[in-house]
Design brief:
magnesium; single chain; alpha+beta; 22% strand; serine-type endopeptidase activity; eight-stranded antiparallel beta sheet; Laminin; six-stranded antiparallel beta sheet; Peptidase_S1_PA; Thrombin, subunit H; gamma-carboxyglutamic acid
């Protein structure tokens, strides 16, 4: 080989290098797949025109949405089926939240985060105009319909022009104002126990039952409530309305015979003498109303329950014993009692106090309902109208320290009373 022949020498050198490379054993090199694994580098299937290669993995929506904009087209490529591919656009695009509410997108749904003044799915309800705030401004009952307050009235009333106040459908004398109960001079004899003598006509819904069982009270025009744990009332027995002084005739009394007694279907004296302690009495003839004979209103469940718990005090009345094992009252007695929180109520007795009962009264003061008051009304006042919230049921002694009077919780029985009597609210 001549050194001067550079072209030939270059060719010969190249041939030598080529021969050396391809003459080496094959074990020196690794496969292409193994080399890729050493570098830990993965190729994008949809880059370099390889997206539709037959060895591409299918049904990997996560990869599609990471490598591309996640939309219907990318999802359709994975499932290759129109029925399996469903779109979920941003649910907040239509700005569904009202009154400055903030929208948060979800899967086929959204959540509105409302300011403190509004509530509802779309922040469409003004909190100040809900039933939970000042009873919605209603003088009687409040209901929410389509996100708006709708006021309703007790039987015997109708809504006023403002759709919040009420108008009386009965003659004016049928709504003779109940007289004050707490401003009178306190009775030193601690009657009812610890109450005061009621004025004639002050509690016109109070009813006295015949045969010495002075209990029961009117809650509508022709229906009465009495104690289920008393003996059965015969159709020949009567109820006395307009009573005040039991020892003399005052010209205001009217007698009514009982046509039908309806005991609550869940009452079972074999299990409990006081659970579901309520019955209805239907009279043989309507009541002739006067200042001394008038019904007490009955409210729907939620209204009655709220009134029971939030009223500062409520009124109980009757001709029961003036003290434990003492004489019964000659004239109608009354007493204002506060509602007792349920935990404290249940802790005051070893007897079972069910959710159909509640406690009212005083822990240490000698004031309470007593024997003979059973079946009498527990009434609460709301904006000048008296509503039935409880029925005197039972207790341990009378006015005993640490013990309370136990009452039937009328709110629990509104559906049954309404269905049985036909009493309806007015709208």
């Amino acid at each position: 080989m001549r050194v001067g022949n550079t072209g030939r020498a270059w060719w010969s050198g190249s041939g030598l290098i080529f021969g050396l490379i391809f003459g080496l054993p094959r074990s020196v090199f690794v496969s292409q797949q193994s080399a890729a694994m050493v570098l830990r580098r993965f190729r994008r299937y949809n880059s370099g025109g390889l997206e539709e290669l037959p060895f591409k993995n299918k049904d990997n929506l996560e990869r599609e949405c990471k490598e591309e904009v996640c939309n219907m087209e990318e999802a359709r490529e994975v499932f290759e089926n129109d029925e399996k591919t469903v779109g979920d656009e941003d649910q907040c695009l239509s700005n569904p939240c009202q009154n400055e509410g903030v929208c948060e997108d979800g899967i086929a749904s959204y959540v509105c985060w409302c300011t403190s003044d509004f509530s509802g799915k779309n922040c469409e309800i003004e909190v100040a105009k809900q039933c939970s705030v000042n009873n919605g401004g209603c003088s009687h009952f409040c209901a929410m319909q389509s996100g708006h307050v709708v006021c309703q009235c007790a039987a015997g009333y109708t809504l006023g022009q403002d759709k919040k106040s009420y108008k009386k459908q009965l003659p004016s004398w049928a709504f003779y104002a109940t007289m004050p109960t707490i401003t009178e001079q306190q009775n030193e004899d601690k009657r009812i126990v610890g109450g005061n003598e009621a004025s004639p006509g002050e509690i016109p819904w109070q009813v006295r039952r015949d045969a010495g069982r002075r209990e029961g009270r009117e809650h509508c025009f022709s229906m009465f409530s009495t104690k289920s744990h008393c003996e059965a009332i015969l159709s020949t027995q009567s109820l006395h309305l307009g009573e005040h002084d039991l020892h003399k005739s005052e010209g205001t009394e009217k007698d009514h015979f009982v046509a039908e007694q309806i005991i609550h279907p869940h009452y079972n004296d074999q299990r409990s003498q006081y659970n579901h302690d309520i019955a209805l009495l239907k009279l043989s003839a309507p009541v002739e109303l006067s200042n001394q004979r008038r019904p007490i209103c009955l409210g729907p469940k939620d209204f009655t329950e709220t009134l029971l718990r939030e009223a500062s005090t409520s009124l109980v009345s009757g001709w029961g014993k003036l003290r434990f094992q003492g004489p019964e009252a000659r004239k109608l007695q009354k007493l204002e009692v506060p509602y007792v929180e349920r935990t404290r109520c249940k802790g005051s007795s070893r007897e079972q106090i069910t959710r159909f009962m509640f406690c009212a009264g005083y822990h240490s003061e000698p004031m309470d309902s007593c024997q003979g008051d059973s079946g009498g009304p527990h009434a609460s006042n709301y904006k000048g109208t008296w509503f039935l919230t409880g029925i005197v049921s039972w207790g341990e002694d009378c006015a005993k320290e640490g013990k309370y009077g136990v009452y039937t919780r009328v709110s629990r029985y509104y559906p049954w009373i309404s269905q049985t009597t036909g009493i309806r609210i007015s709208s």
